[in-house]
Design a protein that fits this description.
Oligomer: single chain
Strand order of the largest sheet: 2-3-7-6
CATH architecture of the largest domain: Up-down Bundle
Largest sheet: 4 strands, antiparallel
Helix content: 40-55%
CATH class of the largest domain: Mainly Alpha
Low-confidence stretches: none
Number of domains: 3
Distance between the termini: 48 Å
Protein backbone atom coordinates (compact mmCIF):
# COMPACT_ATOMS: atom_id res chain seq x y z
CA UNK A 1 0.00 0.00 0.00
CA UNK A 2 1.24 3.47 -0.90
CA UNK A 3 0.37 6.68 0.97
CA UNK A 4 -2.34 8.81 -0.65
CA UNK A 5 -1.45 12.46 -1.17
CA UNK A 6 -4.36 13.50 -3.34
CA UNK A 7 -4.74 13.74 -7.12
CA UNK A 8 -4.79 17.25 -8.56
CA UNK A 9 -3.22 17.75 -11.98
CA UNK A 10 -5.06 20.97 -12.90
CA UNK A 11 -4.91 22.87 -9.57
CA UNK A 12 -8.55 22.05 -8.92
CA UNK A 13 -7.96 22.64 -5.22
CA UNK A 14 -7.90 26.35 -6.05
CA UNK A 15 -11.59 26.04 -6.95
CA UNK A 16 -12.56 24.73 -3.51
CA UNK A 17 -13.20 26.91 -0.48
CA UNK A 18 -11.29 26.39 2.76
CA UNK A 19 -14.44 24.87 4.26
CA UNK A 20 -14.78 22.40 1.39
CA UNK A 21 -11.16 21.36 1.75
CA UNK A 22 -11.62 20.96 5.52
CA UNK A 23 -14.58 18.63 4.96
CA UNK A 24 -12.55 16.60 2.48
CA UNK A 25 -9.60 16.36 4.85
CA UNK A 26 -11.83 15.23 7.73
CA UNK A 27 -13.25 12.38 5.65
CA UNK A 28 -9.84 11.54 4.21
CA UNK A 29 -8.37 11.14 7.69
CA UNK A 30 -11.34 9.02 8.78
CA UNK A 31 -10.88 6.72 5.77
CA UNK A 32 -7.11 6.46 6.27
CA UNK A 33 -7.51 5.55 9.93
CA UNK A 34 -10.72 3.53 10.09
CA UNK A 35 -11.14 1.98 6.64
CA UNK A 36 -7.91 1.47 4.69
CA UNK A 37 -6.15 -0.74 7.28
CA UNK A 38 -9.09 -3.15 7.46
CA UNK A 39 -11.02 -3.05 4.19
CA UNK A 40 -9.31 -5.99 2.50
CA UNK A 41 -10.17 -8.23 5.44
CA UNK A 42 -13.78 -7.05 5.39
CA UNK A 43 -13.90 -7.62 1.65
CA UNK A 44 -12.56 -11.18 2.01
CA UNK A 45 -15.07 -11.95 4.74
CA UNK A 46 -17.96 -10.19 2.96
CA UNK A 47 -18.46 -8.11 6.11
CA UNK A 48 -19.94 -4.62 6.28
CA UNK A 49 -18.28 -2.46 8.99
CA UNK A 50 -21.49 -1.64 10.83
CA UNK A 51 -19.42 -0.36 13.76
CA UNK A 52 -18.48 2.67 11.64
CA UNK A 53 -22.08 3.82 11.15
CA UNK A 54 -22.40 5.82 14.37
CA UNK A 55 -18.94 7.43 14.03
CA UNK A 56 -19.93 8.50 10.51
CA UNK A 57 -23.07 10.02 11.97
CA UNK A 58 -21.12 11.86 14.64
CA UNK A 59 -18.90 13.39 11.95
CA UNK A 60 -21.93 14.56 9.98
CA UNK A 61 -21.45 12.28 6.96
CA UNK A 62 -25.04 10.97 6.89
CA UNK A 63 -27.57 13.20 5.14
CA UNK A 64 -24.87 15.85 5.16
CA UNK A 65 -26.55 18.12 2.59
CA UNK A 66 -29.92 18.20 4.37
CA UNK A 67 -31.07 21.01 6.68
CA UNK A 68 -32.47 20.63 10.18
CA UNK A 69 -33.27 17.60 12.35
CA UNK A 70 -29.61 17.32 13.35
CA UNK A 71 -28.30 17.22 9.78
CA UNK A 72 -25.07 19.07 8.95
CA UNK A 73 -26.58 21.37 6.31
CA UNK A 74 -23.48 21.16 4.12
CA UNK A 75 -23.34 22.34 0.53
CA UNK A 76 -23.74 19.80 -2.24
CA UNK A 77 -20.07 20.19 -3.14
CA UNK A 78 -19.06 19.37 0.43
CA UNK A 79 -21.40 16.39 0.34
CA UNK A 80 -19.82 15.28 -2.94
CA UNK A 81 -16.35 15.43 -1.42
CA UNK A 82 -17.57 13.18 1.43
CA UNK A 83 -18.74 10.63 -1.13
CA UNK A 84 -15.45 10.90 -3.03
CA UNK A 85 -13.35 10.12 0.01
CA UNK A 86 -15.61 7.36 1.31
CA UNK A 87 -15.45 5.55 -2.04
CA UNK A 88 -11.69 5.96 -2.12
CA UNK A 89 -11.93 3.65 0.86
CA UNK A 90 -14.55 1.34 -0.64
CA UNK A 91 -17.65 1.59 -2.81
CA UNK A 92 -19.64 -0.34 -0.21
CA UNK A 93 -19.08 2.32 2.44
CA UNK A 94 -20.08 5.08 0.04
CA UNK A 95 -23.10 3.04 -1.05
CA UNK A 96 -24.25 2.83 2.55
CA UNK A 97 -23.93 6.59 2.99
CA UNK A 98 -25.66 7.25 -0.34
CA UNK A 99 -28.62 5.07 0.60
CA UNK A 100 -28.87 6.40 4.15
CA UNK A 101 -28.75 10.04 3.08
CA UNK A 102 -30.00 10.17 -0.51
CA UNK A 103 -32.55 7.35 -0.62
CA UNK A 104 -33.95 7.26 2.92
CA UNK A 105 -33.33 10.56 4.68
CA UNK A 106 -33.91 12.74 1.60
CA UNK A 107 -37.41 11.39 0.81
CA UNK A 108 -38.46 11.60 4.46
CA UNK A 109 -37.11 15.18 4.56
CA UNK A 110 -38.73 16.10 1.25
CA UNK A 111 -42.01 14.16 1.32
CA UNK A 112 -42.56 13.02 4.91
CA UNK A 113 -44.90 14.29 7.60
CA UNK A 114 -43.52 16.29 10.49
CA UNK A 115 -44.09 13.29 12.73
CA UNK A 116 -42.09 11.06 10.36
CA UNK A 117 -39.29 13.61 10.14
CA UNK A 118 -38.98 13.99 13.91
CA UNK A 119 -39.06 10.25 14.48
CA UNK A 120 -36.58 9.14 11.84
CA UNK A 121 -34.27 11.91 10.64
CA UNK A 122 -32.30 12.53 13.87
CA UNK A 123 -31.83 8.79 14.45
CA UNK A 124 -30.78 8.17 10.84
CA UNK A 125 -28.40 11.14 10.88
CA UNK A 126 -26.75 9.93 14.08
CA UNK A 127 -26.40 6.40 12.75
CA UNK A 128 -28.55 5.12 15.60
CA UNK A 129 -30.99 3.84 12.99
CA UNK A 130 -30.28 2.40 9.55
CA UNK A 131 -32.60 2.68 6.56
CA UNK A 132 -33.00 0.98 3.19
CA UNK A 133 -34.81 1.90 -0.04
CA UNK A 134 -37.07 -0.67 -1.69
CA UNK A 135 -37.77 0.19 -5.32
CA UNK A 136 -36.00 -2.37 -7.55
CA UNK A 137 -37.75 -5.71 -8.02
CA UNK A 138 -36.45 -9.06 -9.32
CA UNK A 139 -38.03 -8.43 -12.74
CA UNK A 140 -37.89 -4.63 -12.84
CA UNK A 141 -34.57 -2.78 -12.60
CA UNK A 142 -34.26 -0.25 -15.41
CA UNK A 143 -38.06 -0.07 -15.65
CA UNK A 144 -39.17 0.62 -12.05
CA UNK A 145 -42.58 1.73 -13.31
CA UNK A 146 -43.33 -1.95 -13.99
CA UNK A 147 -43.28 -2.78 -10.26
CA UNK A 148 -45.65 -5.49 -9.04
CA UNK A 149 -45.60 -4.64 -5.34
CA UNK A 150 -49.08 -3.55 -4.28
CA UNK A 151 -50.51 -1.67 -1.31
CA UNK A 152 -54.26 -2.03 -0.78
CA UNK A 153 -56.25 0.24 1.53
CA UNK A 154 -58.06 -1.82 4.15
CA UNK A 155 -59.99 -0.11 6.92
CA UNK A 156 -57.59 2.81 7.19
CA UNK A 157 -54.50 0.59 7.03
CA UNK A 158 -52.54 -0.50 3.98
CA UNK A 159 -51.70 -4.12 3.23
CA UNK A 160 -48.56 -4.64 1.12
CA UNK A 161 -47.52 -7.65 -0.94
CA UNK A 162 -44.48 -7.96 -3.18
CA UNK A 163 -40.73 -8.43 -3.34
CA UNK A 164 -37.78 -6.07 -3.70
CA UNK A 165 -34.27 -7.09 -4.80
CA UNK A 166 -30.70 -5.74 -4.67
CA UNK A 167 -31.49 -3.60 -1.65
CA UNK A 168 -28.47 -2.08 0.11
CA UNK A 169 -28.62 -2.45 3.92
CA UNK A 170 -31.81 -4.52 3.73
CA UNK A 171 -31.08 -7.01 6.52
CA UNK A 172 -29.55 -4.46 8.89
CA UNK A 173 -32.16 -1.74 8.36
CA UNK A 174 -34.41 -0.54 11.15
CA UNK A 175 -36.78 0.98 8.61
CA UNK A 176 -37.42 0.29 4.93
CA UNK A 177 -38.87 2.85 2.54
CA UNK A 178 -40.87 0.57 0.23
CA UNK A 179 -42.50 1.84 -2.94
CA UNK A 180 -45.75 0.17 -4.00
CA UNK A 181 -48.64 0.66 -6.37
CA UNK A 182 -51.92 1.88 -4.90
CA UNK A 183 -55.19 2.91 -6.50
CA UNK A 184 -53.91 6.50 -6.31
CA UNK A 185 -50.57 5.71 -7.94
CA UNK A 186 -47.11 4.78 -6.63
CA UNK A 187 -46.64 5.65 -2.94
CA UNK A 188 -43.83 5.23 -0.42
CA UNK A 189 -44.32 3.44 2.91
CA UNK A 190 -42.04 3.41 5.96
CA UNK A 191 -42.01 -0.16 7.25
CA UNK A 192 -40.26 -0.87 10.52
CA UNK A 193 -38.14 -3.92 11.18
CA UNK A 194 -40.17 -6.65 12.87
CA UNK A 195 -43.47 -5.75 11.21
CA UNK A 196 -45.37 -9.06 10.70
CA UNK A 197 -45.03 -10.39 7.16
CA UNK A 198 -41.95 -8.26 6.40
CA UNK A 199 -38.75 -10.30 5.99
CA UNK A 200 -35.32 -9.82 4.48
CA UNK A 201 -32.40 -12.01 3.51
CA UNK A 202 -28.91 -11.33 2.22
CA UNK A 203 -27.86 -12.02 -1.35
CA UNK A 204 -24.86 -14.33 -1.12
CA UNK A 205 -22.04 -15.14 -3.54
CA UNK A 206 -21.30 -11.59 -4.69
CA UNK A 207 -17.94 -10.91 -6.35
CA UNK A 208 -18.60 -7.17 -6.09
CA UNK A 209 -19.48 -4.86 -3.17
CA UNK A 210 -18.53 -7.63 -0.80
CA UNK A 211 -18.08 -5.21 2.12
CA UNK A 212 -21.70 -4.12 1.70
CA UNK A 213 -25.03 -5.63 2.72
CA UNK A 214 -27.22 -6.44 -0.31
CA UNK A 215 -30.62 -7.95 0.34
CA UNK A 216 -34.00 -9.16 -0.84
CA UNK A 217 -37.11 -7.81 0.89
CA UNK A 218 -40.30 -9.86 0.98
CA UNK A 219 -43.73 -8.51 1.91
CA UNK A 220 -46.55 -10.94 2.60
CA UNK A 221 -49.74 -9.26 3.81
CA UNK A 222 -47.72 -6.60 5.62
CA UNK A 223 -50.21 -4.33 7.40
CA UNK A 224 -49.14 -0.77 8.20
CA UNK A 225 -51.15 2.27 9.32
CA UNK A 226 -51.89 5.00 6.79
CA UNK A 227 -49.58 7.25 8.82
CA UNK A 228 -46.61 5.18 7.56
CA UNK A 229 -47.15 6.52 4.02
CA UNK A 230 -45.12 9.55 2.91
CA UNK A 231 -47.87 12.13 2.40
CA UNK A 232 -45.98 14.28 -0.10
CA UNK A 233 -44.88 11.51 -2.47
CA UNK A 234 -47.27 10.36 -5.18
CA UNK A 235 -46.35 8.83 -8.53
CA UNK A 236 -43.00 7.70 -9.94
CA UNK A 237 -41.58 11.22 -9.85
CA UNK A 238 -40.94 10.90 -6.10
CA UNK A 239 -38.75 7.76 -6.09
CA UNK A 240 -36.97 8.95 -9.24
CA UNK A 241 -36.11 12.23 -7.50
CA UNK A 242 -34.52 10.16 -4.73
CA UNK A 243 -32.44 8.28 -7.30
CA UNK A 244 -31.19 11.60 -8.67
CA UNK A 245 -29.86 12.46 -5.20
CA UNK A 246 -28.05 9.13 -4.92
CA UNK A 247 -26.68 9.30 -8.47
CA UNK A 248 -25.17 12.68 -7.71
CA UNK A 249 -23.18 11.16 -4.85
CA UNK A 250 -22.13 8.26 -7.05
CA UNK A 251 -20.68 10.68 -9.60
CA UNK A 252 -18.35 12.03 -6.94
CA UNK A 253 -17.69 8.66 -5.33
CA UNK A 254 -16.41 7.15 -8.58
CA UNK A 255 -13.67 9.79 -8.62
CA UNK A 256 -12.45 8.46 -5.28
CA UNK A 257 -12.19 4.91 -6.61
CA UNK A 258 -10.36 6.18 -9.70
CA UNK A 259 -7.96 8.21 -7.56
CA UNK A 260 -7.17 5.18 -5.40
CA UNK A 261 -6.37 3.02 -8.43
CA UNK A 262 -4.37 5.73 -10.18
CA UNK A 263 -2.31 6.54 -7.09
CA UNK A 264 -1.56 2.90 -6.32
CA UNK A 265 -0.47 2.06 -9.85
CA UNK A 266 1.61 5.24 -10.19
CA UNK A 267 3.57 4.61 -7.01
CA UNK A 268 4.00 0.95 -7.98
CA UNK A 269 5.30 1.84 -11.45
CA UNK A 270 7.94 4.11 -9.93
CA UNK A 271 9.49 1.30 -7.89
CA UNK A 272 8.80 -1.77 -10.02
CA UNK A 273 11.79 -2.42 -12.30
CA UNK A 274 11.96 -4.42 -15.50
CA UNK A 275 14.52 -4.58 -18.35
CA UNK A 276 17.88 -3.04 -17.39
CA UNK A 277 16.62 -2.29 -13.88
CA UNK A 278 14.59 0.69 -15.08
CA UNK A 279 11.28 1.50 -13.35
CA UNK A 280 8.37 0.57 -15.57
CA UNK A 281 7.16 4.18 -15.17
CA UNK A 282 9.91 5.10 -17.64
CA UNK A 283 8.32 3.03 -20.41
CA UNK A 284 6.37 4.82 -23.10
CA UNK A 285 3.37 2.48 -23.00
CA UNK A 286 3.05 2.89 -19.23
CA UNK A 287 3.29 6.68 -19.47
CA UNK A 288 0.57 6.66 -22.10
CA UNK A 289 -1.71 4.86 -19.63
CA UNK A 290 -0.99 7.41 -16.92
CA UNK A 291 -1.56 10.32 -19.31
CA UNK A 292 -4.97 8.90 -20.22
CA UNK A 293 -5.86 8.14 -16.60
CA UNK A 294 -5.01 11.55 -15.18
CA UNK A 295 -6.74 13.33 -18.04
CA UNK A 296 -9.98 11.45 -17.47
CA UNK A 297 -9.80 11.89 -13.69
CA UNK A 298 -9.29 15.63 -14.16
CA UNK A 299 -12.27 15.89 -16.51
CA UNK A 300 -14.36 13.91 -14.03
CA UNK A 301 -13.35 16.26 -11.20
CA UNK A 302 -14.37 19.31 -13.20
CA UNK A 303 -17.67 17.76 -14.24
CA UNK A 304 -18.51 16.84 -10.64
CA UNK A 305 -17.61 20.29 -9.38
CA UNK A 306 -19.73 22.04 -12.00
CA UNK A 307 -22.77 19.84 -11.33
CA UNK A 308 -22.26 20.46 -7.61
CA UNK A 309 -22.14 24.21 -8.09
CA UNK A 310 -25.27 24.06 -10.25
CA UNK A 311 -27.00 21.92 -7.63
CA UNK A 312 -26.16 24.44 -4.91
CA UNK A 313 -27.78 27.13 -7.07
CA UNK A 314 -30.86 24.95 -7.66
CA UNK A 315 -30.06 24.67 -11.36
CA UNK A 316 -28.95 21.04 -11.72
CA UNK A 317 -31.53 18.65 -13.13
CA UNK A 318 -31.66 14.88 -13.53
CA UNK A 319 -30.07 14.98 -17.01
CA UNK A 320 -27.04 16.84 -15.64
CA UNK A 321 -26.70 14.18 -12.95
CA UNK A 322 -27.05 11.42 -15.56
CA UNK A 323 -24.02 12.78 -17.43
CA UNK A 324 -22.08 12.98 -14.16
CA UNK A 325 -22.91 9.41 -13.13
CA UNK A 326 -22.46 7.94 -16.62
CA UNK A 327 -19.12 9.58 -17.37
CA UNK A 328 -17.46 9.31 -14.00
CA UNK A 329 -18.28 5.67 -13.33
CA UNK A 330 -17.15 4.72 -16.85
CA UNK A 331 -13.80 6.47 -16.54
CA UNK A 332 -13.29 5.06 -13.03
CA UNK A 333 -13.79 1.54 -14.35
CA UNK A 334 -11.39 2.25 -17.23
CA UNK A 335 -8.81 3.64 -14.78
CA UNK A 336 -9.16 0.58 -12.54
CA UNK A 337 -8.62 -1.77 -15.47
CA UNK A 338 -5.58 0.16 -16.70
CA UNK A 339 -4.14 0.22 -13.19
CA UNK A 340 -4.68 -3.53 -12.84
CA UNK A 341 -2.80 -4.02 -16.10
CA UNK A 342 0.12 -1.92 -14.89
CA UNK A 343 0.49 -4.09 -11.78
CA UNK A 344 0.50 -7.26 -13.87
CA UNK A 345 -0.04 -10.38 -11.77
CA UNK A 346 0.10 -8.29 -8.59
CA UNK A 347 -2.99 -6.50 -9.83
CA UNK A 348 -5.24 -9.41 -8.86
CA UNK A 349 -3.89 -9.70 -5.30
CA UNK A 350 -5.66 -7.97 -2.43
CA UNK A 351 -2.33 -6.73 -1.15
CA UNK A 352 -3.35 -3.87 -3.45
CA UNK A 353 -6.84 -2.28 -3.60
CA UNK A 354 -7.18 -2.17 -7.39
CA UNK A 355 -8.99 -5.42 -8.15
CA UNK A 356 -11.44 -4.76 -5.30
CA UNK A 357 -12.24 -1.32 -6.71
CA UNK A 358 -12.52 -2.76 -10.22
CA UNK A 359 -15.02 -5.39 -9.09
CA UNK A 360 -16.99 -2.85 -7.06
CA UNK A 361 -17.20 -0.49 -10.02
CA UNK A 362 -18.82 -3.19 -12.12
CA UNK A 363 -21.82 -2.90 -9.78
CA UNK A 364 -21.67 0.89 -9.65
CA UNK A 365 -21.66 0.87 -13.46
CA UNK A 366 -25.03 -0.92 -13.33
CA UNK A 367 -26.92 0.34 -10.28
CA UNK A 368 -28.79 3.62 -9.86
CA UNK A 369 -29.45 3.62 -13.60
CA UNK A 370 -27.28 1.57 -15.94
CA UNK A 371 -24.73 3.20 -18.21
CA UNK A 372 -27.05 2.62 -21.17
CA UNK A 373 -30.10 4.12 -19.46
CA UNK A 374 -28.15 7.28 -18.65
CA UNK A 375 -27.04 7.37 -22.28
CA UNK A 376 -30.71 7.51 -23.27
CA UNK A 377 -31.47 10.19 -20.68
CA UNK A 378 -28.76 12.39 -22.19
CA UNK A 379 -29.98 11.51 -25.67
CA UNK A 380 -33.48 12.64 -24.79
CA UNK A 381 -32.12 15.86 -23.30
CA UNK A 382 -30.24 16.84 -26.47
CA UNK A 383 -32.80 15.63 -29.05
CA UNK A 384 -36.06 16.09 -27.20
CA UNK A 385 -37.06 12.54 -28.19
CA UNK A 386 -37.38 9.79 -25.51
CA UNK A 387 -35.94 6.62 -27.08
CA UNK A 388 -36.88 4.31 -24.19
CA UNK A 389 -40.63 4.90 -24.24
Amino acid sequence: MFAFRGVDYMEIDSLFSDQEKLVRQTVREFVEKEVIPHIEEWNREAKFPVHLVEPMGELGFLGANLEGYGCAGMSNVEYGLIMQELERGDSGLRSFASVQGGLVMYPIHEYGSEEQKKKWLPALQQGKAIGCFGLTEPDFGSNPAGMRTRAVNDGGDYVLNGEKAWITSGTIADVALVWARTREGVRGFLIEKGTPGFTSKDIKGKWSLRASVTSILSLQDVRVPASSMLPGAQGMKAPLSCLTQARYGIGWGAIGAAMACYNESLEYAKVRTQFDDKPIASHQMIQEKFAEMITEITKAQLLALQVGRLKDKGRADHAHVSMLKRNNVKIALDVARAARDILGANGIADEYPIFRHMCNLESVFTYEGTHNIHTLVIGERVTGIPAYK
